[in-house]
Inverse folding.
């Protein structure tokens, strides 16, 4: 259990190694992660999403600086896609996250999606737990926000920041496609550029048209520039205000419950999928034959698989 | 390296005032195409920044690309930093442009392998796999 001690004491190597174990997903780390989970619940988790190139990593850097200046510790989990061909990945978010080194109050971890449904959410939320237990006050999770796994990660955040950039066109499209509903805060990046105003106006227009939060929170639209370090204090203030709103309204308890629910169901799905794919190859093949022959229907076949997986 | 996914993690860095980044990008791509997770940190990093990042990322291999001629000051410094951080199980590799006698000296100091000009992808991938296998699980 001294790995757990290292994590709780905030020792960098211990945190880093624990994350690798969690990502590998072997059974040997479950006990440690269970112990770590008991020490979580203090960190505020911020999901940061937007299309590639919108400026998430750059914003994470300046936001981290602002968080440090406010006397708090910050962890960053940056998720990038794996290549569908080789399964490998080039994780480049650190290229933007300069000037944060040598400060024990900042911990940055890069992760690949690995293409496995369910696996990404599990591993990155384990990493968030590890940072939480290690005493990081705010954990920022950067993801591109496409795909069910990434949406699950975002929905595990207490505050979701959706970032839009001028000149990327497909931005508003991406937001229409589902990110609009999950945003607690909209930020527009690169406001040092003249065309940023257009993006701000478009977004504000869309927000007045629809989607009220329902819980009394007014979703703000904030201009930011990492280049000129403008609007970053306001963004952090909005994140803190959203947290205060959740706490005052009691919404935080609901959100935590919902996050736990999504996680439990996700893990269960993940386990069932791995079991079906792994140990029951023969049974699945047999059932497929019978379904093809119209002897059993797909529903009955699925129930059969479930019953079999319960036996081991 | 992880027992279940078996994914090797490598951090690639350019240290100092060296702006030659073609080689490091070639290396990044060939390791990715071999199924590894490659963290790239960009140009003009300090040895301290790079070692810090390698420790947080818990990589198997830290690869440094040097074409500036500063390898005999930068690499020994990184070996020291890895030792000081109690992270000398991270394998240090290097590549770029350097004379043969320096390569021999660096390997004596603890650099796992040095691969120079025209190193083919198979050699780069094979060397990373071999060094990680030799180190064993941790
Ligand atoms: C292209 C080039 C440039 C381009 C760089 C473009 C870019 N964005 O990369 C430009 C024109 C900008 C340039 C500028 C300069 N250059 Co220049 N450049 C070259 C040249 C001709 C080829 C380098 C290259 O891209 N090779 C192709 C890549 C794919 O090969 P590679 O980098 O060697 O990488 C391979 C291996 O080394 C290995 N590898 C590399 N890194 C790593 C890392 C790991 C972990 C591993 C495992 C393997 C590995 O794998 C790769 C694939 O096989 C070399 C000559 C040479 N023979 O290398 C000079 C050379 C490197 N440059 C040199 C010089 C002096 C300069 C300048 C200072 C010139 C000047 N006075 O302005 C500037 C400095 C720029 C800067 N800020 O650093 C000298 C360096 C001398 C030294 N080391 O003592 C060289 C050696 C030329 C010479 N013979 O004098 N250069
Ligand atoms: N002008 C300007 N460019 C920015 C700003 N923030 C990010 N960028 C640039 O946008 C590009 C993508 O940034 P990055 O942070 O990597 O985006 P990500 O893919 O969303 O993580 C980079 O070239 C950044 O330099 C900003 O505030 N102003
Ligand atoms: Mg990024």
């Amino acid at each position: 259990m001294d790995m757990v001690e290292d994590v709780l004491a905030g020792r960098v190597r211990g945190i880093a190694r624990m994350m690798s174990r969690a990502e590998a997903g072997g059974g040997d780390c479950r006990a440690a992660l269970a112990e770590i989970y008991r020490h979580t619940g203090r960190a505020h988790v911020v999901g940061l999403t937007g299309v590639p190139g919108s400026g998430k990593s750059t914003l994470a850097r300046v936001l981290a600086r602002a968080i440090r200046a406010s006397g708090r510790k910050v962890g960053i989990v940056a998720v990038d896609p794996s290549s569908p061909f080789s399964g490998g990945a080039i994780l480049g978010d650190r290229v933007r996250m300069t000037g944060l080194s040598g400060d024990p109050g900042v911990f940055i971890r890069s992760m690949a999606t690995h293409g496995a449904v369910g696996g990404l959410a599990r591993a990155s939320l384990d990493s968030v737990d590890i940072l939480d237990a290690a005493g990081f006050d705010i954990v920022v999770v950067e993801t591109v926000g496409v795909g069910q796994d990434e949406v699950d990660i975002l929905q595990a955040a207490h505050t979701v920041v959706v970032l839009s950039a001028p000149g990327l066109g497909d931005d508003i499209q991406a937001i229409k496609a589902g990110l609009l509903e999950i945003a607690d805060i909209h930020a527009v990046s690169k406001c040092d550029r003249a065309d940023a105003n257009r993006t701000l106006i478009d977004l504000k227009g869309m927000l007045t048209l629809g989607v009220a939060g329902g819980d009394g929170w007014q979703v703000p639209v904030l201009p930011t520039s990492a280049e000129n370090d403008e609007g970053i204090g306001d963004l952090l203030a909005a994140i803190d205000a959203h947290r205060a709103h959740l706490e005052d309204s009691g919404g935080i308890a609901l959100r935590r419950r919902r996050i736990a629910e999504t996680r439990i169901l996700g893990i269960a799905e993940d386990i069932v999928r791995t079991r079906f794919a792994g140990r029951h190859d023969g049974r699945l093949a047999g059932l497929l034959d019978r379904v093809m022959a119209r002897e059993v229907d797909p529903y009955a076949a699925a129930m059969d698989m479930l019953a079999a997986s319960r036996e081991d | 390296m992880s027992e279940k996914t078996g994914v090797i993690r490598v951090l690639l860095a350019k240290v100092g005032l060296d702006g030659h980044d073609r080689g490091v990008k070639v290396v990044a791509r060939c390791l990715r195409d071999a199924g590894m997770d490659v963290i790239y940190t960009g140009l003009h990093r300090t040895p301290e920044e790079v070692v810090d990042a390698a420790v947080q990322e818990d990589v198997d291999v830290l690869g440094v690309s040097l074409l500036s001629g500063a390898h005999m000051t930068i690499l020994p410094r990184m070996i020291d930093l890895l030792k000081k951080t109690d992270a000398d199980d991270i394998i240090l590799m290097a590549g770029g442009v350097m004379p043969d006698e320096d390569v021999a000296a660096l390997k004596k100091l603890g650099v796992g392998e040095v691969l120079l000009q025209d190193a083919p992808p198979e050699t780069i991938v094979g060397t990373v796999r071999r060094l990680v296998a030799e180190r064993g699980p941790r």
